[in-house]
Amino acid sequence: MLDWLKQLTSLLAQENSISLVTVIRVGGSVPREVGARMLVGRHLEAGTIGGGNLEYQSIAIARDILLSGQTATVSRTFALGPALGQCCGGQVELLFEPVFRDQSWLASLQGESGRSGWWCRPLESAGGRLPGIYCADQCGSNPLRKRDPAIAGAQLLEIDNTRWFCEPLYADNPEVWLFGAGHVGQAVVAQLALLRCDVVWIDQRAGLLQAPLAAAPRFSLTMRECLVPAEEVADAPAQVHYVVMTHSHAIDYDVCRAVLERRDFRYLGLIGSVTKGNQFSRRLRHRGVPDSVIKRMHCPLGFGSIRSRRPESIALSLAAQLAVLWEHTGID
Fold first, then answer.
1. Is the per-residue pLDDT at 184 higher than 60?
2. pLDDT above 60: residue 127
3. What domains appear along the chain, each with residue ranges and CATH number?
4. For 229, which DSSP code?
5. For range 46-50, the mean pLDDT
């Protein structure tokens, strides 16, 4: 279940009605993406659609809707120019949806147990069709039949002269397998804990693996002590993001070799210099690993524009590199 649905359930336990304010269409330079959402009650609010006057006015509109007792959804388009005092210059269309504790569709969303469900609702009259849960592999009258499969998140679709807003009810976290619990490894975990991801943290030294003091709601951490770190690679699912920074170059090499021989990884970052990367590449090439696979290994890892070797700076550089990768592949 997504975070906003958990927040909605929590807020509805405190107030009888909540207005969902969702970004459904954007154009030009805007502060948030399609699917960004804010929850507004008469006295409470959670989330953000970008801040500034746009958010201030949206909260006022959402509360006016709740106070009026209105039950229908409303969409409004805002130009982010002089009228709002925001210099972005783009356009944002927002959907205002009043939600009440006893609505049947809310119970359906909370009871959805599959991982392929999408919540779709028509923004205009659609021949009596109501909001519902749809699966992406259904066809016929399913509004998802026209969604762009290259976009993992929410989409605004037009079907038979009716606009539908559809969004997935589940989103898998990107998975990072981090080898090494030294000073840099600990800094990396503390930095990744601020993001939405699942981390498997591996080291053979007892007592070094420690959970971070603070973490984002969608962050999870699994810690493994093991004798041979490279053997853990066999247990990883496909499309994992591997980060290798153990206390031993020999262990680093064995882990990288195991990852590259699998070939089904999403990312492989190795701590070290260009020289270390070149040495590993020669050895891997001698072992028969193709150049096309070896070139997917990032060494040094992170962004080269951050030159500091402080553990915190390396961790920040790596987290930024992963965040950009996740954004471009639709994970985030």
1. yes
2. no
3. 3-100 (no CATH), 104-168 (no CATH), 175-328 (3.40.50.720)
4. G
5. 90
